What we know:
The protein is an alpha+beta fold. It has ten helices and six strands; from the N terminus they run ααββααααααββαββα. The strands form three sheets. A two-stranded antiparallel ribbon has the order 1-2. The chain has a two-stranded antiparallel ribbon with strand order 3-4. It has a two-stranded antiparallel sheet with strand order 5-6. The termini are far apart. The model is unreliable at 1-12 (pLDDT under 50).
Amino acid sequence: MRSETELMWQGIPNEIDAPAPSRAYTAPILVYAGRMKLSYGGDGRDHLYRLPAAHVGATTRRVMDLLGSRIEENRSGAVVDHRPWWHAVDLMSDEWLPHLLTTRHMTEDPCIERAVVISLECGPNRIRGDISLATARTALAEIGSEEPDDRSVELLLDKKRFGVHYADGWVINPHHAPGTGWAMVHGLEDKWIQRGRDGFLRPAKKLLEARGEVLQ
Length: 216
């Protein structure tokens, strides 16, 4: 028996054969335990929400039949729906990018750009490994993200928008703002950032010197 917290975050698993490894398919029903304050729209009851863009599979129909009523689409701003983000990050891989791009209605373009950033930043530490720069470029182009003429130099050198700090070694902490996806691509192509032995990205000496950082 899963805990209330697990249900809230994972939803009710879908028993159909999912067309892709996305949690938007495998957990199409969001379970929200009804402890939300009345001031936030709660009414003390548990609620089930069907995700607006998710596939209505066998599990969804079965639960609706058992309840004898239709599961409403999640339209409440008080209930956080993580599926658009999950759909983007779960399918951000060289193999599954084509499926992600054909199901953009199930996610949001900022989620896709953020998934590019995370996939490049974390590299082979992710379950499916890192994405190629070609995949990153394709994803950004398909969502209409315009490639900067300056090859992202302005953003890479901006200490507020592209975080770099020292914590037992130099690390990058890119903010998820428009243009960061291209900054990651250009940073790798132009050797501003490099991958460490642990698979995560690190600022190269070139970037640290250009930003006036004190080398450790």
